[in-house]
Design brief:
Layout: H1 3-12, E1 22-34, E2 39-41, E3 46-47, E4 51-68, E5 72-75, E6 78-79, H2 85-94, E7 103-110, H3 120-136, H4 142-152, E8 164-167, E9 180-184, E10 190-195, H5 206-216, H6 223-240, H7 243-262, H8 273-287, E11 293-296, E12 302-307, H9 311-317, E13 322-324
Parallel strand pairs: 5-7
Antiparallel strand pairs: 1-4, 2-3, 4-7, 4-8, 5-6, 8-9, 10-12, 10-13, 11-12
Helix pairs in contact: 3-4, 6-7
Bound molecules: ligand 2P0.
Amino acid sequence: MNPEAQRCVRSLIPAHAPRNPSGRAFAPSNIALCKYWGKRNEALKLPLTGSLSVSLGKLGSQVSIHLADQDSFQLNGEEVPPSHKARKRLFAYLDLFRQNAECFQVEAENTIPMGAGLASSASAFAAIAQAVDALYGWELSSEQLSILARMGSGSASRSIYEGFAEWVAGAREDGMDSYAVSIAPVWPEFRIGLLILSQAEKAVGSTEGMRRTRDSSSLFQSWPAQVERDLPAIRNAVLERDFSRLGQHAEQNALSMHATMASAWPPLIYAQPETLAVLHRVHTLRAEGLELYVTMDAGPNVKLLYLAQDREAVRSAFPEVQEVE
Ligand code: 2P0
């Protein structure tokens, strides 16, 4: 067990609380418009920079946790065997919360494909943190829940909220000032179009990808400066509903992150030929006047950013798009 994380959890949870037989929570997935890429502390999942995301509506994770005689984990109705890495990661996380060697029966339903750059770990750990809070009756604040979720998966810190959330990097060594806050619950016209080009699990996960980029890419040295430009611009664009400004900074931020990945050694190239074809198509449509932008995570899939008024134009260019309000 990780002693640093254990200390953080101990300092957050109240000494006495009514324990319930079970806890249940839903958390939405999120897509970063300004990306989290690089940690300053791996054990506590503390980021080098801040980041900003928008949640994905009903796409996310529903988690129930019951006290039980032995640990078990069901994902989308199927028992996950003890040797599976997702199960090991789940119970390593839950070890942080066990009070008296109790066991947990965990049931999770994910409405998004796992491991395809669609951040299922973000919604999963945000839902687990909230289900644990409900189980133990702690009634933690959103910021405290965000810290707990962060220790499961960094991007989960942002999945505590619906709408636009900013994860403030913080400066403290114990990470108690590194949590997400809500900056705007809604932007009714804002749309995300998911283009799922591959459901394959990625070859290199985010934790290893971040480490490799930080350690071997000279371009990564300029990444914090890129975030310093993009983060306030995107935050203000959300607050002022300035879609063009948001789209430009979000797309440049995502492609800058991919440039740092591609310049790592061994190189990390998450884009597939279909990814590049979509990017070129988007750039052609934009040159023709359509306000359409993209963002991409650690995978080959593309997320389109547009406003409701352009949904028909987007749908006719990309009939396979899955729209999220
Ligand atoms: C993000 N990603 O901001 C960035 C953009 C991927 C690319 O957060 O190691 O699964 O568990 O903290 O949260 C994916 O990283 O990584 C991620 P860990 P996580 O959404």
